[in-house]
TrEMBL record:
PANTHER family: PLASMINOGEN (PTHR24261:SF13), PLASMINOGEN-RELATED (PTHR24261). Residues 1-39 form the Kringle domain. Gene3D superfamilies: Plasminogen Kringle 4. GO terms for biological process: proteolysis. The gene is PLG. Pfam families: Kringle. It comes from the Eukaryota. This is Plasminogen. One of its GO terms (cellular component) is extracellular space. Signal peptide: none annotated. The keyword DNA repair does not apply. Keywords: Disulfide bond, Kringle. SUPFAM superfamilies: Kringle-like. Transmembrane segments: none annotated.
Length: 39
């Protein structure tokens, strides 16, 4: 299953990225740190 949009309204069962990382909330820095800082 591939997403070609922001995915913010995604309600499916896939919980891993294409590279195998566990998905997390956009406003969380755990378990993976990222550069997106919500305002």
């Amino acid at each position: 299953e591939c997403m070609h949009c922001s995915g913010e309204n995604y309600d499916g069962k896939i919980s891993r990225t294409m590279s195998g990382l566990e998905c997390q909330a956009w406003d969380s820095q755990t378990p993976h740190a990222h550069g997106y800082i919500p305002s």
